[in-house]
């Protein structure tokens, strides 16, 4: 109870007594109301977040620099002798600091002295070590010191790579003796310095060498396997010198005969590194023998032949030798599968992919080819211990986008690394191996299988109902016979069910006709029931559309191919595999629908399927629980999961530009999945004829055509250029020269021929090039160019309509061929044959040469070039006509080809062709041979002689531009060049020399000029100027210089070093980095913006994004436009629009929401892109974020680096980054 009077005596509460307070939020002008009561005896919070007092002032820059760097004692020198200086600085000398310094490298080491007969250790001696200053920052040598442990695996972008074993020209001012380029065929000594005798490498010497090697191996503690390996090495040594004696024409690719059995295999390798529980095929034994000899091999074998045996033996051999092996694959899924298989077999196996790194210290590392390329460029220490690199699915080198990576890796591998290439059968395996062998200077043994271990039978299927379900027609037997009878039987069966209207159109182009969904369902239901009854499952149904894969699987609602036991096994495996997903992710629509399909034995496999779901389907298929698998072409690439039957939904596919039939190589790769070795006698391949039977010619070409040859996809990339430019000792042109695209050049043979030609040229009589004759060689080159220009113009004239019109009856022409040189003639007849048009011409010639002129008309073309090349006229526009008044002249009538006419004059004569030809033919008969020429011939020859005498400097010829009205750019430029060259001839001093004629005959002699021309041609071929991509290289260097990635001398600048860290779209990403485009964005916005670098599809749904993100997109497009225009200005063919169009922002909203924590089921509703594609893009985006983080650290932007790390952590969650079933 409170008294009212007491209450009234209390002071009334004012505004200041209420628990309210205003807080000023920074400088933005915003206020926040604080309403919560405060504890007693606690002051109110500050009413502003701004600091009290005056704002801080910015110090003058000069004052700040002086304070930090000039007056701070820590920056002053310790050993300055000026005491007054130290009194001012206030810094004391610390002598003991001199004792703490980094250790210098040791200049000597200990060497072991052993007894040469027993191998016992006798003593240690001190030896001097050379090149102790070599490191990864200044040398390519394997003798350099190892880098820090943190860089041992991936290397560093500041490291030099190890010297490639491809004959790169190694230029270095600090090059030591250990780093010199040694010729291992010519520079090796056989007699050691200080000794009188050495090793005899002749046939007699080999016997003693074998005995000594055997004695040493028995005295030295080694296991039996090593001695076996030595035996193989020595046996192979007998063959190698014989091959090397062949000289420069040596074939680097050595095909191995696998038709005869390898009976002495176990004698040659009594203790193999790996023992197999089955008998090896001949090709596998031959490959293993080559591996024991440490040779490189190319194994091109049919699908399911057992190429993996070769890879397994190499891994076992490297573990035995205590070295390392790298196994590369083209796709990440194949890397995961091989990791599981090899881990089970060998145990000591690691995996390196973009987002996974498992057991990197293992002796066998499995990785994608791009990672190996990065390790080679960055000088990874793994390369030191590397014995083998295994390239699986080498035919992937034909991939237009990624094929260049294989070529880069093959070129960059050091000399001590041996190569194993595994591929499907390719027609040019020898050619490809020849290229590798030549750039590596070592033989490559080519081992190919002759036939499949399980033969295939190819059928056409026309059934679509229970009545017609057995309409399966054999088209191609297992022996390779194409059965036209089966084809026509399929055509007849199909015609019985088609309407009369459809029958009238025949069977061609039926593949263009589309079928309805209900028709497709009927065909698949019928076929799969039929195959299930015949126990021909499992079936892989190749369908070249992800949408059609899903539709075909969903349409088979009534098809159930599994037993109750199999259903239970599928259910338990699904439950166990999906436990690693969060609860919400397990209920994704794709998982729920696939669960129902899998329980009925039906699976779907394409890039749109969730990765974990694809792995579940692959494992169930390999167990035989998935009976029917609808898959796209990617399932056939390297995934070793054969089936009993393969079905083709269609033989047409879309290749990115349009629809086309399957290539023979594509068909063979997919059809090869049929037939399980050890389980099936034959494999079955079925082609569906849903709308009609395909054209027989197309089927024959697809089934029996040659597989696609291995072709070079080498192209220049900015990353490649910058990685090579940052190492002064390596040149980009050397990389281009050694690419497969330049395989046609044989530099060694060319250089040998150049040496021979130079010797031949030096043996000829020397030219007088003194005094007035000093420019005679330039005169010759000008004359040669003038001749070539004239021939080019004349060819253009004769190919034109106006030029052919000018070559009419009565036209005076200049004739040059094997029989006539600058001879005048007049056209008498023109043939009507448009292809091989002939001109019957009356020609003035010397007396006695009429018969010679008619001999061997068929060889005119052969002599034309040689004659005109060796005796070019001084003036080719107005040719000097031979004057015949000094010697008796005659005439002849000949049929000329267009190339025999070197010039068309402006003059015409009135002639009577029939009389001239008849009179000439009459006088060719023996009894009329002495008759005088007829009046018509006499008149024509006199007119021609009068023209020659009246124009001693040459008769005026028709001008191609002014007279014949040819307006082509090449013709106009040719005429202008022709006039310039003509004017140049007057300025030469050599034409005034009294010995000019003699020297011209000497210099223009056929032998000298042929030798000189061949020499010039070969010098051009071995020079950089002949490289196909040299022009593009200079264009890209211009782009890099304009963007300041390199300076004018080619030295890589800071921006260039940043770009080296980025694997794709390096220019755009580096420019965004240096323009601070990512700085104002939040981590999730940065990730969303960078998704344009990894997403390549078109979408129909526009993303809803924030205004900040839209500004970022506009900036990216502006930078891309600027780079595209710069590339176009520098001459690169790609347009700015095409360059900008490759960046697509369809997943921007999806990535943004995912980084902000939205569940996967919800982000999948934001786009029409399939779930598997979304996951793959986010996984690749994580690799981009890591590259940007590394680049930010190089620049020194720690804020951006930490932001990229937060963005990476934000997207690395849940189903997107669930661990692979193969690795855990």
TrEMBL record:
Source taxon at top rank: Eukaryota
GO terms of biological process kind: nuclear-transcribed mRNA catabolic process, 3'-5' exonucleolytic nonsense-mediated decay
InterPro entries: Beta-barrel_MTR4, DEAD/DEAH_box_helicase_dom, Helicase_ATP-bd, Helicase_C-like, MTR4-like_stalk, P-loop_NTPase, RNA-DNA_Helicase, SKI2-like
Cited Pfam families: DEAD, DSHCT, Helicase_C, MTR4-like_stalk, MTR4_beta-barrel, Ski2_N
Keyword flag ATP-binding: yes
Name the UniProt record assigns to this protein: SKI2 subunit of superkiller complex
UniProt GO MF annotations: ATP binding; hydrolase activity; RNA binding; RNA helicase activity
Polar residues bias locations: 222-234
Keyword Cytoplasm appears in the UniProt entry: yes
Record-linked SUPFAM superfamilies: P-loop containing nucleoside triphosphate hydrolases (SSF52540)
PANTHER family on file: ATP-DEPENDENT RNA AND DNA HELICASE, ATP-DEPENDENT RNA HELICASE SUPV3L1, MITOCHONDRIAL-RELATED
Annotated spans, Disordered: 139-158, 222-250, 850-890
Signal sequence, start to end: none
Lineage of origin: Eukaryota, Metazoa, Chordata, Craniata, Vertebrata
Basic and acidic residues bias spans: 236-250, 850-865
Domain Helicase C-terminal: 560-725
Compartment(s): Cytoplasm
SMART domains (UniProt xref): DEXDc, DSHCT, HELICc
Record keywords: ATP-binding, Cytoplasm, Helicase, Hydrolase, Nucleotide-binding, RNA-binding
Catalysed conversion reaction: ATP + H2O = ADP + phosphate + H(+)
Domain Helicase ATP-binding: 288-444
Organism field: Cyprinus carpio carpio
GO cellular component, one term: Ski complex
